[in-house]
């Protein structure tokens, strides 16, 4: 029987499902896969209308208006940005999240359940924006963004803010169960075909939790730009970190500059470790998190090609 691929998209609003699926197909396989692939499309649960066709998605590194402005842009201090983003996330979650104590003086760290991750993302974002422009700071052996520092900072902070708010909504805002239902339905429609699952960003968390619950046989599980290695995320998974029963191989790919991934190795926490392969790849989207750039990478594509050649 011909293999099937289920995609689980990540944070933020998306274009209509047919177009989004075709974009992922083209990036991963070089063509539209028709009935051989399925998009677990949960965006309508959080957003009233899809993005216009072919509008750049800022959470996938799409172009931002600030890049066109020649004027310098002032940004609030990282601690202030963290506190405001955390407050907005809690407000949108309907105050379901636990109350946060005051920030630790001088650190900007917030005592929310995911606040430490938010703080780390924010400070790393600002550090990358500075170091990629000036060459001062951590030496990252990958190509820098072709943007001025103010644009880089805006791109990174957009990614930080919206990613955190969606993950917060998933764990604390009552959105998690309905999003997981979308993935379950996509998997249930496959009629026993060999399965590969691809999860991007928050989608990797959703896919992981559904697979851990169902213990369904999956030939290949691929996560890209995933926060599953981050302690604050692991603390809120329904089951303790482990390779889901039934998953035969798990590949986890990330760019060192991807703020959502932040921690790039799953193997130490997800046993049995021989089933997990962590890959450092280059993602040259503007925020180093874009899905197309991940799926086009040869190391991400290769196991799908091998699977389809063997089973098709």
UniProtKB/TrEMBL annotation:
<feature type="domain" description="AB hydrolase-1">
    <location>
        <begin position="179"/>
        <end position="259"/>
    </location>
</feature>
<feature type="region of interest" description="Disordered">
    <location>
        <begin position="89"/>
        <end position="108"/>
    </location>
</feature>
<keyword id="KW-0378">Hydrolase</keyword>
<dbReference type="InterPro" id="IPR000073">
    <property type="entry name" value="AB_hydrolase_1"/>
</dbReference>
<dbReference type="Pfam" id="PF12697">
    <property type="entry name" value="Abhydrolase_6"/>
</dbReference>
<dbReference type="InterPro" id="IPR029058">
    <property type="entry name" value="AB_hydrolase_fold"/>
</dbReference>
<protein>
    <submittedName>
        <fullName>Alpha/beta fold hydrolase</fullName>
    </submittedName>
</protein>
<dbReference type="GO" id="GO:0016787">
    <property type="term" value="F:hydrolase activity"/>
</dbReference>
